[in-house]
Write a structure and sequence with these properties.
This protein has three helices and eleven strands; from the N terminus they run ββαβαββββαββββ. It is α/β, with parallel strands linked by helices. The protein binds guanosine-5'-monophosphate and magnesium ion.
């Protein structure tokens, strides 16, 4: 598909599924090396990171645990800037090597909230992997440790990312048409 319509907006093909998978394979290789002996806990941030989490953990070759958290910060195509509560972490992460798996890091507001909350639980280490990173929008000091792909500030959908609930199931990434 070269073009999709979600609600009232059109989006055109931007990153195909093959390129997505090869970018993910590259960071998965590094994550495999860095976490080989660590039995990490991967924490996917719902809803957007469900596909990225599934792809990363399937490429991870050592023992690991997988969990998900959820928060809500976005409605429509513009970041609202304020982030709601984090829900769903039942595992004790004290003393564990934790890797957060994000779909996209934009301003970094969401990430700061998650990192603050998880740090209070005293993990042994806490790192961040994101599928997409918007370097021109990122305003925080926290390093993003693993980035599969860098993109511009345009609004994207697909591969877990939605526009008002639609588009998460698309296996390619699409960019909004102006
Ligand atoms: P931040 O808090 O870093 O500004 O934004 C993070 C969240 O905003 C992401 O988890 C995602 O839900 C949403 N977001 C940021 N950029 C995009 C985008 O281009 N497309 C979609 N669908 N969501 C985005
Ligand atoms: Mg997200």
């Amino acid at each position: 598909m070269n073009r999709v319509k979600l609600h009232n907006k059109y989006f055109k093909l931007f990153i195909d599924a093959e390129s997505i998978q090869s970018a993910i394979s590259k960071i998965a290789e590094i994550i495999n090396k860095d976490y080989k002996e660590k039995s990490p806990i991967f924490i996917g941030v719902l809803n957007g990171s469900f596909l990225f989490t599934a792809d990363i953990v399937r490429k991870f070759k050592s023992n690991c645990e997988i969990s998900f958290i959820r928060l809500s910060s976005y409605s429509g195509t513009e970041s609202s800037g304020n982030v709601l509560e984090v829900m769903g972490l039942n595992e004790d992460i004290k003393g564990r090597d934790v890797l957060i798996l994000e779909d996209i890091v934009d301003s970094g507001n969401t990430l700061v909230k998650i990192v603050d909350l998880l740090k209070k639980k005293q993990p042994k280490s806490l790192k961040i992997a994101t599928f997409l990173f918007k370097p021109n929008a990122y305003k925080k000091d926290i390093p993003v440790d693993y980035v599969a792909m860098e993109v511009g500030n345009e609004f994207l959908v697909g591969y877990g990312l939605d526009y008002d609930g639609l588009g998460r199931n698309l296996e390619d990434i699409y960019i909004i048409e102006e």
